[in-house]
Amino acid sequence: MLQITNVEKTFNKGTINEKKALQNLNLTMNEGDFITVIGGNGAGKSTMLNMIAGVYPIDAGTITLDGVNISRWPEHKVAKYIGRVFQDPMRGTAAGMEIEENLALAYRRGKSRTLKWGVTSAEKELYHEKLKVLGLGLEDRMTSKVGLLSGGQRQALTLLMATLQQPKLLLLDEHTAALDPKTAKTVLELTEKIVEENHLTALMVTHNMKDAIRLGNRLIMMHEGHIIYDVAGEEKKNLQVADLLKKFEEASGGEFANDRMMLS
Predict the structure, then answer these.
(1) Model pLDDT for residues 156-186, shown as the tens digit of each residue
(2) What digits encode the pLDDT tens for the residues 116-141?
């Protein structure tokens, strides 16, 4: 489903602030893979997601999605095929619009637009059923402004919006990092449920090593812009946090540098 081949990205090239964010990055994802991504500070995790999503142009290499080369596609064109949930709950929704209006925007993504205005009765029924799955009571507040929701409710809604059109690839960029532990647990459980039930291909960056081990069928560790560890199956299930720290030290020659990961 996703093929990243020899991708390079350097920011502020030729200046004193030059930063090699991705170096010879290679990754192959099969359809239905749910890969968790961990790494130290500045390892290139979020940059990798941004490159896939077309936020920045890559310097070299290729990115192929479902057999199509999207390496030079702009963000709005890639967005038709990719769902994304950000760390900030405020980024994925329009606060001044109603819940059902936000869902309508997501549902019509990539479709032809007309002058017809409003949300149809059939759409309202669909959104009601989809919201009910979240278990947050939002199905009874469909005309409420999204700005009135809590961070956790907004993130759950963003997750639903990102998967409403069955994306070819779902990108999750530390999407529970800004939430309290209880709410983060709820959103993670919803993530697992939605990905599994819809057989989605997903790439999830997380700061929580335990979550990285528990969720998904595969785990990759990044360091200095490339992948230094890739594990799947029974080996992944049997991992402990101490094993990951040891693997990092062996592969990088240094200690793991990510305060939030260590604290979690």
Answers:
(1) 899 899 988 889 999 999 998 888 888 888 8
(2) 566 778 888 888 988 988 888 888 88
Which one, of 136, 155, 156, 154, lies nearest residue 145 by Cα? 154
Alpha helix locations (H) across 99-240?
99-107, 121-134, 151-163, 181-197, 209-214, 233-237
Return the structure tokens found at 165.
């059109």
Sign of CA dihedral 124, 125, 131, 137: positive
Amino acid type, 200: L
DSSP output for 103-140: HHHHHTTTSPP-S--S--HHHHHHHHHHHHHHTSSGGG
Q: Which residue has the tokens 């005309």?
A: 143
Q: Which of 83, 132, 122, 123 is nearest to 100 (CA)?
A: 123
Q: How far is CA 31 from the centre of its chain?
A: 16
**Pairing outcome for strands 169-173 and 19-29:** unpaired
What are residue 24's phi and psi, to 5 degrees? 50, 50
User: How far, in whole angstroms, is CA 229 from its chain's centroid?
Assistant: 20
Q: How many helices (H) and strands (E) does the chain have?
A: 10, 10
Domains parsed from the chain with CATH numbers: 2-81+167-263 (3.40.50.300), 97-166 (no CATH)
248: which 2 tokens? 């990092």
